[in-house]
Sequence to fold (532 residues):
Amino acid sequence: MDTLLEILNPNFLLRNALYGGLIIGLVAPAVGVFLLARRLVFIGIALPQVSTAGVAAAFVWHTYFHGHLNRDVSDFVLALVGSSILTFAVILVLALLERRGRGLGEGRIGMLYAIAGAVIILLLASDRVTEIGVLGLLKGEIIAIPDIELLILLLGYGTILAVLTVFHKELVLVTVDREMAISLGKRVALWDLVLFGIIGVTISLGVLVVGPLVMFGFLIVPPMIAGRLVVGMRSISIVAALVGAGIALGGFASAYRLDLPTGPTDVALAGIVLAVVMAWQFMRTFVFRTAVQ
Amino acid sequence: MTDALISFQDVALGYDGVPVLEGLTLDVHRGDFLALVGPNGCGKSTILKGMARILEPFRGRIVREIDGRPVRFGYVPQREAIEMVFPLTVFQVALMGTYGRVGPGRPVTHADRERVRICLDDVGLGDLQRKLFPALSGGQRQRVLIARALAAEPDLLLLDEPLSGIDLGAAQVIMDLIERLHRERSLTIVMVSHHLKMLREHEMVREVIWVHEGKLLRGSVAAMLAPEAIVRMMDAEIG
Fold:
């Protein structure tokens, strides 16, 4: 409790890291609901990796042509540009393949994941300074987030949340029954673009703050927990967002108290919550069956 | 004819750039009750998807207009096409039918929700609104999808194999329901089906289109589904 009060104090030194985690914990699961519903989970694994490869490529490019950067705003913007360009380029190619009816094939996405991972390691091996920065990102060490980065995150994720809320029914329709959406005269290509755009911004921005592992964790685990607790896409989105925010808060407090890296603590906590919910459901079913017999 | 809801004019349809059917010319008129029949893979569902805008023609033209406005479709896909990672309730599935009429970003109104309840009552599932869709039987799921299509307030109901994979009793209930909707709501209906006997037994089915080697053979139920006609078509299919 003391830890919680300490980290919630407005003067807490690492408050931006907490706020950043909370923003991602709140919004990423709401996006993840659509990733799961549309059976794009593997995309949820591969894209954060691609995004990180974009960050590494941007840093190495800058080092090669302009020398090393300091940890400041231009550093963040450079990483965001690298992350966004590669993420959106890959999303565009995948969306085109899907529209041509060739599907997103597990093999294709698996290959993407492997290649992106190899690119990250090769780029890092070529530049020691970039290696240290990106390794922190890979470990998910959310420590210091400057005010301007927090503001960019807040604006980006705030916009995503607004789009998800306002256009919820359109996004649900193209996710659950694409053919029905077309027959109703909906512009499915446009809504696909909106959905893939949301996924792209969520991942390319989020990866910069929490890294690929935590990003994937927040995209997938809270929606899985919510899907076991409530019914309906809107209810699941709301509960997933609340669960994600709760995990971000609980994970940060635990990591701070136990001196652990924040990101992996968040993901481990999400796994524990999922296990508890599953165990509770199993027990409930068991008790019900026993009572019936 | 001026009352054609759908008009295929020398149309080629298919997938991934490969035409499955070519040179299709076909009109569906207001008040029609048409059944598309033929062996598996002959292109029945492809034609239905062409009608519903899901497939656009490679060549030719499909006109889908009524009184100067686009035709409103109530599309009922094959039941297996709806696979949900997160299960929705019966009401939530049926509610999706209203999304075509409600503009982007606008909420579904109370009147729309009321209309969905009426549609569920119409298909005899008014008391199952809160049930999870995947927990229903095949026949009940099919009726939910019909209610969803009705919620779109369609000019034309398109049903893709609504009787497949369900027992005879449930198939009879669905066929009676479709027939009642055609009669009471004056709904134009096009359905894909393999149940030739059931089509023959329902007098509201006016015409049958037999899809045979890429050609459309159209005629009355009596002529197209007479036992000797079926034997002739089957012989031709088998070669």
